[in-house]
Specification:
By secondary structure, the chain is α+β, with helices and mostly antiparallel strands. 39% of the residues lie in helices and 25% in strands. Strand 8 (162-172) and strand 9 (175-180) form a beta hairpin. Helix 3 (53-62) packs across helix 7. The longest helix has 23 residues, at 2-24.
């Protein structure tokens, strides 16, 4: 019986260690105080970021959770809580009301591009476009990327607002996230 118990404990420790080693070898990126795992989807990872609680609440209110958990791939330009805080007072509270779901959905899908665009892909587009390029968002409207120095890309929305990417290439099972400092607005 003691031998069986020792064997079970050893096996449990071995499996636990192997599991932790597998998780640690995933090349995670820290976002909002949490590790983002490439084996998880966009929503699973965003739920753990303290910097994206407003975005997660908005995605839930717009009914986009299932979409962002689907196969993709997607590139998501994810505004932080601080980005949402820059909007006029009451804007977020108003947008998450059920009667404003269409407007909220339009804004959120303006932050999503079909396909996986890592920094190197964006840089190729910028080089081809002499420092500027247009991306078509899931909402159907264009979003522009622009060079702002070496390895620094900015986004320009339909209203002329500029967003800086603070964290690039946060790998997801169904795409990639780039963290941005401004909420993008379609025309």
């Amino acid at each position: 019986m003691k031998t069986l118990l020792r064997t079970a404990i050893c096996a449990s420790l071995l499996l636990s260690t192997a599991s932790m080693a597998a998780m640690m070898s995933q090349n995670t990126t820290m976002v909002g105080g949490a590790e983002m795992y490439p084996s998880k989807n966009i929503v699973e990872n965003a739920l753990n970021s303290k910097d994206h609680t407003t975005l997660v609440a908005a995605v839930k209110a717009a009914g986009l959770v299932d979409t962002l958990q689907s196969k993709g791939p997607f590139t998501v330009f994810a505004p932080t809580n601080a980005a949402f805080a820059k909007l006029p007072a009451g804007t977020v509270d108003n947008l998450v009301k059920p009667e404003n779901k269409a407007t909220l959905t339009s804004i959120l899908t303006y932050h999503v591009v079909a396909g996986k665009y890592e920094m190197k892909d964006l840089e190729k587009l910028l080089k081809k476009g002499n420092g500027a390029a247009e991306l078509k968002t899931v909402n159907g409207q264009p979003l522009w990327i622009m060079n702002n120095g070496p390895h620094n890309i900015q986004l320009k929305d339909g209203k002329g607002n500029i967003a800086n990417i603070s964290t690039y290439d946060v790998q997801q099972k169904n795409g990639v996230i780039d963290v941005i400092d401004t909420v993008l607005m379609p025309k």
